[in-house]
Design brief:
By secondary structure, the protein is an alpha/beta fold. Strand 8, helix 3 and strand 9 form a beta-alpha-beta unit. It has a single domain, classed as Rossmann fold (3-Layer(aba) Sandwich). The longest helix is centred in the last third of the chain and has 20 residues. The protein binds hypoxanthine.
């Protein structure tokens, strides 16, 4: 089997890919520790892909405890060149309604205390990556085309605000994020995107809106059961998207 160039990082609601014909699993070690789980090498509609469940096989690793460096490094070592990151998010602005897919084009990072760079120790020179366009424009375009082709009605833009979690945000935090220009909110988008850029991997996100963010829906509290139900609906669209992605 040749090395797959396409990697898929699955988030909440996507710990495995139905339709993925599993060829082998591999425990990969990295200089930064172990990734969230073994890499799954498989075939999705004739195409070789490598899959990684961001929160671990049984969804036990919370967003702030994910070893993002090990995950990205492991995919890099496995030969991946492109990463499609799937993530559940809260919707802030009007278009970002529950169960919609969003292909964001910008990021604001509110996380803290995470190992967020490969360029820290043993450097021969200080390195600053360009992050003007945080997502790979070509890969984003492929995702958008696949959504259009399948009639998935994705929102084709949006600013992803990355929060620390694991708690959800306060109403005031979401209001501030909206004033900052955030359209959606999630807990895992950073440092994942920046680490991929540091290793020269093309990275783009397909977000699934799981709920209205705090204070945005007509419900006083955000129910986990509702999030899970909506994510399940949204992930069916993600599977369709991934099966029809041409990269
Ligand atoms: N906030 C942050 N992360 C999320 C949310 C949210 O409302 N929903 C799903 N992931």
């Amino acid at each position: 089997m040749k090395t797959p160039e396409l990697a898929i990082i699955g988030g909440t609601g996507l710990t495995s890919l139905s339709g993925l014909e599993i060829l082998r699993e591999e425990n990969v070690g990295t200089p930064f520790g172990a990734p969230s789980c073994p890499l799954v090498f498989g075939r999705l509609r004739e195409r070789e892909v490598v899959f990684l469940a961001r929160h671990g096989k049984n969804h036990t690793i919370p967003p702030h405890r994910i070893n993002y460096r090990a995950n990205i490094q492991a995919l890099h070592q496995a030969g991946a060149r492109r990463i499609v990151a799937v993530a559940a998010v809260g919707g802030i602005t009007a278009e970002m309604s529950p169960a919609r897919l969003v292909i964001p084009d910008q990021i604001i990072d509110y996380t803290y205390g995470r190992e967020h760079t490969f360029f820290a120790d043993g450097l021969t020179e200080v390195t600053h990556i360009d992050f003007t366009e945080p997502y790979d424009t070509g890969l984003r375009q492929r995702l958008i085309e696949a959504c259009r082709g399948q009639g998935l009605d994705a929102v084709e833009h949006g600013t992803y605000g990355a929060t620390q979690g694991p708690r959800l945000e306060s109403g005031a935090e979401i209001s501030r994020m909206e004033r900052d220009g955030c359209d959606i909110v999630g807990m895992t988008g950073m440092p994942e995107a920046a680490l991929a850029r540091e290793l020269g991997l093309a990275y783009a996100t397909c977000a699934v809106v799981a709920n209205w963010a705090a204070g945005k829906g007509d419900q006083a509290v955000i129910e986990m059961a509702e999030i899970e139900r909506t994510v399940r609906q949204g992930m069916d669209k993600v599977r369709t998207l991934l099966e029809n992605l041409e990269v």
